[in-house]
Design goal:
GO terms for molecular function: glucose-6-phosphate isomerase activity. With 425 residues, the protein is α/β, with parallel strands linked by helices. Helices cover 46% and strands 13% of the residues. It contains 16 helices and 10 strands. Strands 1-10-9-7-8 form a 5-stranded mixed beta sheet, sandwiched between helices. Strands 3-2-4-5-6 form a 5-stranded parallel beta sheet, sandwiched between helices. Helix 5 links the parallel strand 2 and strand 3. The longest helix has 21 residues. Bound molecules: 6-O-phosphono-beta-D-fructofuranose. 6-O-phosphono-beta-D-fructofuranose binds next to loops.
């Protein structure tokens, strides 16, 4: 379902030693006894999803859609990016959701954003989905303080039935608040970290509310779970991708540029950056994840990638089939001198551009990986996101890193809280 190509020779990477290491990582993952094994709930989550849970998600999404015009999803990091990635990839560029919109808040701190959001929804019926695994993250908590007040001022007691909470089963301020108010609650499983949570209620409720087929998304993830679980180094693209990027890192290529010609995948790239950056960037090591959308960024960062410091490798998400296409037509006077392209579709143009860019960057000293996926729909996105989560585990373990914690994010939080005189800091 996903094919990984590489400008070098994979067999050179897969030395006997490397195969041994990969094998023991594989065994630790599936026996769930490696480092961080208490956060492996995502590994067999798709196949373990129960029908009543999925029905609850779909019914709640229907209820939200039937009584509202807008769902505001409040969350940050892994409690935001998965849903945002899938919704952005699937919704049309314009007239995004003519009858129902999903909007986001709490993923930054901006008074202008929140004021303008409240003004924008004033003549629309509104529901909220607050998502925070810890239930204590400052940015979503702040946004919720304003939006909860807005809902109560506007709807009175009815606000309580328009607010949906996704958080830990037992702990956190949000959990307590939801209990007090009687908000409908969904649980973020203990053993699933934020950046691995897109197939839990964290991602599924906003995606279903946006009108997309969560069953197909889960089916894609389930097939990936099944097909990528074998230790077959020739066939398993997740292990191949993890092994290749690790090898490149060892050769001094410390930055990975994730490129795509599909603008709608922009937030899949953002999701990928959190996944790999937060999983691997520890103990003064790890590949730094960067992203570009082509051909746009060929006209800006393209110069650096071709010719700048040689510590980059590039990995492309290549989509085989376009969602819609246009064919270049012949023009009588050829004033724009584009008749040489007549008969070519814009998707074919991009596939050719991929080959050209890849050749040029390779000759400039940038190794090339291709992650080929058939198309962008719910099923293939489910497959792709699971593929990246699994690859990330292999890649981080190859570095000797626990992929599932993020101790580094506490330092800046402590520094901010001290300045803000938060009690206890
Ligand atoms: O879901 P929560 O607990 O609000 O956390 C949001 C994000 O913040 C982080 O904890 C980093 O501070 C991420 O790991 C996480 O995805």
């Amino acid at each position: 379902m996903i094919n990984v190509t590489y400008s070098g020779n994979v067999q050179d990477i897969l030395t006997d030693d490397k195969k041994e290491t990969l094998k023991s990582i594989h065994e630790g993952l599936y026996a769930k006894n490696g480092e961080g094994n208490d956060f492996l709930g995502w590994l067999d989550w798709p196949s373990g999803l129960s029908e009543p849970f999925l029905n609850d998600i779909k019914q709640t999404a229907d209820e939200i859609r039937s009584k509202s015009d807008v769902l505001i999803v409040i969350g940050i990091g892994g409690s935001y990016l998965g849903a945002k990635a899938v919704i952005e990839a699937l919704q049309p560029y314009f007239e995004k959701n003519p009858n129902f919109e999903v909007l986001f808040a709490g993923h930054q701190v901006s008074g202008a954003y929140l004021k303008q959001l409240m003004a924008y929804v004033e003549d629309k019926e509104v529901a909220l989905n607050v998502i925070s695994k810890s239930g204590t993250t400052t940015e979503p908590a702040l946004a919720f303080r304003f939006l909860q007040q807005y809902m109560e001022d506007r709807y009175g007691k009815e606000a309580d039935s328009r607010i949906y909470v996704t958080t830990d089963a037992e702990k956190g301020a949000l959990r307590t608040l939801a209990e007090e108010k009687g908000y409908k609650r969904f649980v973020v499983p203990d053993d699933v970290g934020g950046r691995y949570s897109v197939f839990t209620a964290v991602g599924l409720l906003p995606i279903a509310a946006a009108g997309f087929d969560v069953e197909q998304l889960i089916q894609g993830a389930k097939d990936a779970e099944n097909e990528l679980s074998s230790f077959d180094l020739d066939q398993n693209p997740a292990i191949r991708y993890g092994a290749i990027r690790h090898q490149l890192f060892e050769q001094g290529y410390t930055n990975e540029v994730l490129a795509t010609f599909e603008p709608k995948l922009n937030f899949v790239q953002e999701w990928w950056k959190q996944l790999f950056g937060e999983s691997e960037g520890k103990d003064q090591t790890g590949i730094f994840p960067i992203s570009v959308v082509y051909t746009t960024d060929l006209h800006s960062l393209g110069q650096y990638i071709q010719d700048g410091k040689r510590n980059l490798f590039e990995s492309f998400i290549v989509v085989d089939e376009a969602e819609e296409d246009l064919e270049v037509f012949e023009k009588e006077n050829n004033a724009d001198q584009l008749n040489y392209l007549a008969g070519l579709s814009l998707h074919e143009f991009n596939l050719t551009a991929y080959k050209g860019v890849s050749e040029a960057h390779l000759s400039g000293g940038v190794p090339q990986i291709g992650v080929h996926v058939k198309k962008v729909d719910e099923y293939h996105l489910g497959y792709l996101l699971y593929f990246y989560m699994l690859s990330c585990a292999y890649s981080a373990y190859l570095l000797g890193i626990n992929p599932f914690n993020q101790p580094g994010v506490e330092d800046y939080k402590t520094a901010i809280f001290k300045l803000l005189k938060k009690p206890g800091y």
